[in-house]
């Protein structure tokens, strides 16, 4: 039986390329493994797969009790395939907090506080004497560039930086030039529907009793997106009604300036003010120096919620 | 600030020695770390620490929001220090299922499906070029012997076996002879109070809506213990009332024959019959070939509970 390898819903570049690379590693180690995706590719990931001439993994709708699965770049069940609580999880490779995750039996679970799943996969290749091909290097390199915004995000660790240099050498690519082109490919919002903007890279977090949806969009031009604010807010309200989110936060990150402007919709959206010491103006605030959902947005909001309930 | 390193409540040999060894590794890597214990040592662990002339770690009552902690040999919060949900967990090294565990931030989390935490620690030493001293080798060796019942438990993997051989060489000890003496030191039930028997190595598992307490006692003579069955059952009933367990299972493992005799007390104790295809006689059944709580008892009971509710 083949192990199904996949990343989170609303796939980004790290989730897709890590699934592909992790499946290759498993096969190199003599196991049957196939990479899947849980949704459509974004433009950035398309650019990366095209550049390195790699096929898009097949779409996976759900898993069931017959499936053996390996999760990459996520562990929280609500971000995973439908039916994940029924499947046998044999392995997890991740770089996020651990939560809403549970198995019946022991498994291989490896999370490290680095900027990117690919950085861990690069280590796993070394530990198991798996040769990193040009293609694998290109994919892992793309993931690190994406997750660390070309090493500028505060999530970046020395390990990510070293891995990127190493992989760029193997892939034989100027990572600065390639990286900017890849990020730009994903950062144009003109041809994206409002629905796509708020669902493209969105994750749900349970904080206290609140279901908090946090979407992130990378842009090179904040104005291009905020000209559409009214329709975006309408769409967020509809989406929140439909999915019963208590709070919806859209984080619009300017990848050149390394700042984010957020729109926060929900009864308790004041939590943003407490979390970042800012004032909301028409449900909107500039978060100077904030670019990382994982390292900056999620923990600050979580702490703010906790202090609200104390 | 020193990182507090500890294993689970009701400490066993792997939990105590892994805390000691993990703290040594952290210090070798330039961090401040101190090993603690969450309860009294059992006779087996006392034997091991005495033999290798290692000091008993200090008792830790609880942790709080100022603490940075590292968990070894467990991850489920109900098995950990009181207040664990407030502390900052920076690292976990474990070989159990993952459940009832949650952090706000990314961390180093490493679980592998091997027989013993010490087997993973031995790998971590190699990965980080930390020299394994005679003392560390003796401690890790004792943990592997304890958790795998001298390599006879079905939880034993090739990695545990190889690690044991390697460590015994460094410790310069005949592991078969030492191991049997160490196991016997922990296996006499004569001088143990009934209370100690049912709480000494006990863990709570949430299964569906049930709080299931599973205690394990290793013996070399089943009769010695079952002569006291009546008082044991009384004590279990009192303990279950007090702690609101829905089911209490005492697994008495004959470490020489590699079988277990269980006593199951609780309204739904018939789950044992479904889990192991046996008939309970006076709340008691022999589970042939069953020696591992983690690999055999817990997953089978969990599955049986799931099928009951389907």
UniProtKB/TrEMBL annotation, chains A, B:
Q: Which residues bind Mn(2+) 2?
A: 14, 73, 95, 147
Keyword Manganese (UniProt): yes
Q: How does the cofactor attach, per the note? A: Binds 2 manganese ions per subunit.
Alphabetical GO CC annotations of the entry are: cytoplasm
E.C. no: 3.6.1.1
**Which InterPro entries did the record assign?**
DDH_dom, DHH_sf, DHHA2, DHHA2_dom_sf, Mn-dep_inorganic_PyrPase
Q: Which reaction does it catalyse?
A: diphosphate + H2O = 2 phosphate + H(+)
* Keyword set includes Cell cycle: no
Which GO molecular function annotation, any one, does this entry have?
A: inorganic diphosphate phosphatase activity
| Subcellular location(s) of the protein | Cytoplasm
Q: What cofactor does its activity depend on?
A: Mn(2+)
Instruction: Write the record's keywords in alphabetical order, separated by commas.
Output: Cytoplasm, Hydrolase, Manganese, Metal-binding
Q: What is its main location?
A: cytoplasm
Q: Which residues form the DHHA2 domain?
A: 179-305
Task: Write out the similarity annotation.
Answer: Belongs to the PPase class C family.
**HAMAP family, from UniProt?**
PPase_C
This chain's protein is named Probable manganese-dependent inorganic pyrophosphatase
Gene name tied to this protein = ppaC
């Amino acid at each position: 039986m083949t192990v199904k390898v996949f990343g989170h819903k609303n796939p980004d570049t790290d989730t897709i390329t890590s699934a592909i690379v992790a499946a290759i590693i498993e096969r190199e180690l003599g196991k049957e493994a196939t990479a899947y995706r849980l949704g459509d590719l974004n433009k950035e990931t398309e650019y990366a797969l095209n550049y390195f001439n790699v096929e898009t993994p097949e779409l996976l709708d759900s898993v069931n009790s017959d499936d053996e699965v390996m999760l990459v770049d996520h562990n929280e069940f609500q971000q995973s395939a439908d039916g994940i609580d029924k499947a046998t999880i044999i392995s997890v490779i991740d770089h996020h907090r651990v939560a809403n995750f549970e198995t019946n039996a022991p498994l291989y679970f490896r999370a490290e506080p680095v900027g990117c799943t690919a950085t861990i996969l690069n280590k796993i290749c070394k530990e198991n004497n798996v040769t990193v091909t040009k293609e694998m290097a290109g994919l892992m390199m793309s993931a690190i560039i994406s997750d660390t915004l070309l090493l500028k995000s505060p999530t970046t660790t020395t390990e990510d930086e070293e891995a990127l240099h190493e992989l760029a050498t193997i892939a034989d690519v100027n990572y600065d030039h390639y990286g900017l082109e890849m990020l730009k490919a994903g950062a144009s919002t003109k041809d994206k529907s409002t629905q796509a903007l708020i669902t493209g890279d969105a994750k749900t977090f349970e904080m206290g009793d609140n279901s908090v949806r946090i979407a992130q969009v990378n842009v090179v031009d904040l104005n291009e997106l905020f000209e559409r604010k009214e329709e975006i807010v309408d769409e967020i309200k509809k989406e929140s009604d439909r999915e019963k989110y208590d709070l919806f936060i859209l984080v619009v990150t300017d990848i050149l300036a390394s700042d984010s402007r957020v729109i926060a919709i929900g009864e308790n959206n004041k939590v943003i003010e407490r979390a970042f010491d800012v004032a909301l103006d028409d449900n909107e605030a500039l978060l100077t120096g904030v670019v990382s959902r994982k390292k900056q947005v999620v923990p600050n909001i979580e702490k703010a919620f906790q202090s609200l309930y104390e």
